[in-house]
Write a structure and sequence with these properties.
Shape: globular
Helix content: over 70%
Strand content: under 5%
Number of strands: 0
Distance between the termini: 40 Å
Largest sheet: none
Length: about 220
């Protein structure tokens, strides 16, 4: 089996939990409370800031030219796409720099980012890259599942549209193929570390919805 097949199989309960999570379902229904969505955006801002940095840090550490190019492309696409749209959301919701500074980072956001940085310290560029995949892949599948019915809430509909479409699918397919190659080229121990990094990130993705819904604090 390929890396992506094995990783998805082990992480399946957490992916299904994300698809069925009340946050995702309420977002689609249009009745997600503004307070919860606002808190999610604030925590996600911290996460995406470091996610973008991690793409570049991994690119600096790997010697694989194809991986370097893909990760730098990912960082640029993130800046021009998802992060730019988030800035629009912040403007429309009047989320100020003061509010950003004064909102503590929630435990789950902190732990998720820490997990990904740890892959660069205790793992390898391959394990670090494997830990990055669940975020983009999961959101693409959520967008694909929700786009047909959509959301009656204009802001939530735009969130869904951010992750849906053929371009998003093609991007994920390209990354999955690249990680499958890296997995096949790796020794058994590193292969297992790649799977573990992917599964932990999948668990953290599921926990991220819980964090937002509960307005999680330390």
């Amino acid at each position: 089996m390929s890396f992506t097949e094995l990783a998805r199989k082990e992480a399946a309960p957490f992916w299904e939990g994300s698809f069925k999570h009340p946050f995702v379902q309420s977002l689609a229904a249009g009745d997600l409370t503004p307070e919860v969505f606002r808190y999610y955006l604030l925590q996600d801002r911290y996460y995406l800031e470091h996610f973008s940095k991690l793409y570049r840090y991994i690119a600096e550490q790997t010697k694989d030219k194809e991986v370097q190019a893909q990760l730098r492309e990912n960082a640029e696409n993130l800046k021009l796409g998802e992060m730019a749209i988030r800035e629009e959301f912040f403007s429309e919701l009047a989320i100020s720099e003061k509010e950003i500074r004064e909102t503590p980072i929630a435990p789950t956001a902190y732990h998720y980012v820490s997990h990904m940085y740890r892959q660069l310290i205790d793992g390898t560029p391959k394990t670090a890259y494997a830990g990055m995949l669940p975020c983009a892949w999961l959101y693409q599948e959520i967008g694909d599942r929700l786009i047909e019915a959509g959301s009656p809430h204009p802001l939530y509909q735009r969130w869904i549209e951010t992750y849906a479409g053929e371009e998003a699918i093609e991007g994920i397919e390209k990354e999955c193929a690249l990680l499958n190659r890296l997995y096949q080229e790796s020794p058994k121990e590193e292969q297992q570390q790649m799977i573990e990094a992917f599964v932990i990130s999948s668990k953290m993705e599921h926990a991220f919805w819980d964090m937002a819904t509960s307005l999680e604090k330390w």
